[in-house]
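The pair is quoted verbatim below.
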Amino acid sequence: MEKLLIRIRPLTLVIPEEREALYKRLKDALDRVEDIANDERVKPKLRLEALRLIGYLGQVMLGALKEAQLDEIDRRLRKLEEEARASREEI
C-alpha cells in the first residue's frame, strides 16, 4: 500500500498592482480617520462619526481582500482541475 503525504502550507495573499493601489488608499484613509477617532480634543459627535467611518472602511477593505483571495483560489482551482484531468487520463 502506498502512503499519501499531505502538506498544508499557509496561504499567501498576493494583491495585484491595481488592487494594491486601492488597498493603500483605503489604508491611508483608515489611518487618517483613526487619528480623528482617537483625538480626545475632537467633539464626541465627530469621534463617533469617525468610528462609523472606520467600520465602513473595514467592510470595504475586507471586501477587497476577499476578492483578491478569490482570485488566488480560482487560479489554484484551475491548476488543480487541470492536474485532476491529467491524473484521470493516466488511469
Observations:
- The first helix runs from residue 17 to 38.
- The helical segments are 17-38, 44-90.
